[in-house]
Structures are given as C-alpha cells and as structure tokens.
Amino acid sequence: MISSVRGEVLSVGLDHAVIEVGGVGFAVQAVPATLATLRRGTEAHLHTTLVVREDALTLFGFADADSRELFGLLQTVSGIGPRLALAALAVLEPEKLRLALSDGNITMLTQVPGIGRKGAERLIIELRDKVSAPLSGGDGQVESRAAGNAVRADVVEALVGLGFTAKQAEQAVDRVATPDAPGDTSRMLRAALAVLGRKK
C-alpha cells in the first residue's frame, strides 16, 4: 500500500494532481480543497490510499490522515465506493462529516451527490458508533455532548422501530431534547411519543 507521497507537483487538474516521486509521476485523485493548496513546481506531501480494481490502480490523496481514515471507513458501508467516499469528503470537511454521522444528521449527509435518504440512514446506522466527532470545550462538555448524542440516536432508532419515519423521529427528538444535556433515554422516548401523539 502506498500510504503517502512527497515530491514535486508536475501538474494540477480539476480532479487530480501529478506528483513526481523518484522520477515517477503519480496521478493522485483528490478533493478540490486539497488540489487548491498545490502549486506546480513546489513540493507536496499527501497521505494516500491505493484502490485496486481489476481494470485499474487508482491513488487517492488527502491533506491529512483523518481524511484518509474517513475515506476508508466510508467504503466499509455497502454501496459506498471510492468515488462516492471522495465526493462526501469534497462536500463535508472531516469534522462536519464525523458530526453528521454521530448526530444522525440525514439532511447534512444527503447534501452529497449520490447519497439519498436511505443511503444516509445506512451510513448513520453502520458508522455512528465508529466515529468520534471532534468537540470543542472542556472534558465535561465533551462527555456531556457525546452522551447526549448517544441518547438522541437511541431514541430515534427506537421510534423508527415503532413505525415512525426517520424524519418524524428526528423532528420529535429535536423538540424534546435539551441542548448540551445528556438526558434520560426513557424520559426522552416518552416525551417524543407524546409529541407524536402516541403516549406510552
């Protein structure tokens, strides 16, 4: 696996750059934000992942290791290939993408071309527990926010299991959730059901 490349930038295109390493020019696919930082004739260092297919070997480059990690993680979800994973990182910065997954933010995820509601729900279900969204503030704030996200996600999942749509569940939870407070799963579920007209 080619985990990184460092060398002179020979050219920069709309979706890739050519970087010379040891006399060999590597075509590296990258998002526009990364390509915008590269200048022909200057040295560049990119974290990379080599994707092997029967008919092609494609090298993808990233400005940091976090982006590369998310690129690989996204592809563990059925239906998400390297092109779609790269598109997600082109639309959402790593921090926003992690936050969208951990918060179950379907609206934000569907901003990515090629990802619909069902695809976004699948991403959230499969990756929510595998990402840790960067949070600002002290340790107490971080723990509180993370706990709140977990409770919110559990309640949304429970409501969907009861037959409500993901959108209905999210809107109900948003109405009863207390900002920056973890809350209690059973209390929040009862409150959300009351909002939805099904008191338990």
From TrEMBL:
Key words, A-Z: ATP-binding, Cytoplasm, DNA damage, DNA recombination, DNA repair, DNA-binding, Helicase, Hydrolase, Nucleotide-binding
> Which stretches make up the Helix-hairpin-helix DNA-binding motif class domain?
72-91, 107-126
Q: Which GO terms describe its cellular component?
A: cytoplasm; Holliday junction helicase complex; Holliday junction resolvase complex
Give the GO terms filed under biological process for this record: DNA recombination; DNA repair
- Reading the lineage from the top rank, the first entry is Bacteria
Q: Where in the cell is it found?
A: Cytoplasm
- InterPro entries per the record? DNA_helicase_Holl-junc_RuvA_I (IPR013849), Hlx-hairpin-Hlx_DNA-bd_motif (IPR003583), NA-bd_OB-fold (IPR012340), RuvA (IPR000085), RuvA_2-like (IPR010994), RuvA_C (IPR011114), RuvA_C_sf (IPR036267)
Molecular function terms from GO: ATP binding; four-way junction DNA binding; four-way junction helicase activity
Q: Does the keyword Manganese apply?
A: no
Q: According to the UniProt record, where is the region Domain III?
A: 151-200
| Alphabetized Pfam families for the sequence | HHH_5, RuvA_C, RuvA_N
Q: Which family does it belong to?
A: Belongs to the RuvA family.
Q: What does this protein do?
A: The RuvA-RuvB-RuvC complex processes Holliday junction (HJ) DNA during genetic recombination and DNA repair, while the RuvA-RuvB complex plays an important role in the rescue of blocked DNA replication forks via replication fork reversal (RFR). RuvA specifically binds to HJ cruciform DNA, conferring on it an open structure. The RuvB hexamer acts as an ATP-dependent pump, pulling dsDNA into and through the RuvAB complex. HJ branch migration allows RuvC to scan DNA until it finds its consensus sequence, where it cleaves and resolves the cruciform DNA.
Assembly and interaction partners: Homotetramer. Forms an RuvA(8)-RuvB(12)-Holliday junction (HJ) complex. HJ DNA is sandwiched between 2 RuvA tetramers; dsDNA enters through RuvA and exits via RuvB. An RuvB hexamer assembles on each DNA strand where it exits the tetramer. Each RuvB hexamer is contacted by two RuvA subunits (via domain III) on 2 adjacent RuvB subunits; this complex drives branch migration. In the full resolvosome a probable DNA-RuvA(4)-RuvB(12)-RuvC(2) complex forms which resolves the HJ.
Comment text on domains:
Has three domains with a flexible linker between the domains II and III and assumes an 'L' shape. Domain III is highly mobile and contacts RuvB.
Query: Per its record, how is this protein called by name?
Result: Holliday junction branch migration complex subunit RuvA
Q: Specify the species.
A: Saccharomonospora xinjiangensis XJ-54
Q: Which gene encodes it?
A: ruvA
